Amino acid sequence: MRHGKKDNHLGRTASHRKAMLSNMASSLILHKRIETTLAKAKELRKYVEPLLTRAKEDSTHNRRVVFSYLNDKESTKELFGVVSDKIAARPGGYTRIIKLGSRLGDAAETALIELVDFNDALLLANADKPAKTRRSRRGGKKAEGSETEVSAAPVKKADHPIVAESEPAVDEAPETDELPGNTDKE
């Protein structure tokens, strides 16, 4: 029975699973995104998010705890150096999982897991958009002055009249009589 066992075992022994998640977490921290199966991505998210939270406060104890999970000096240094600066203001949800479809060989669901603050294309796209403002859904009472301002504004017409094109953009199709092989004459 599997009572109380909420983690996906991923078809591996406990030691193999721990080593695999440690290696995947190190790769995610170093490369900022990795492609894997959906089940592994979901387990990796549960494994790496607490480590990212610990990295926000740089102390010797936190470095040792994170190193005990990652077992890699380079990824620990990268996590406490570059990554922790970018995620400092984020209260959680440091990773994003994007489903990619099924793999060709065995039809396994694949996914891309990435660190949210390191997706440059998405950050640039969001920087161009203006910030959305919240609006009330209820139509409250309008102020008396605002109604007169709207009606007092003159409606401006277009300066130039709209004119339809005189010539069609595409030549007309030839008549059916002109087509070769047409023997039907009326």
Automatic annotation (TrEMBL):
It comes from the Bacteria. SUPFAM superfamilies: Prokaryotic ribosomal protein L17. Residues 168-178 have a biased composition (Acidic residues). Pfam families: Ribosomal_L17. This is Large ribosomal subunit protein bL17. Part of the 50S ribosomal subunit. Contacts protein L32. One of its GO terms (molecular function) is structural constituent of ribosome. GO terms for biological process: translation. The gene is rplQ. Belongs to the bacterial ribosomal protein bL17 family. GO terms for cellular component: cytosolic large ribosomal subunit.
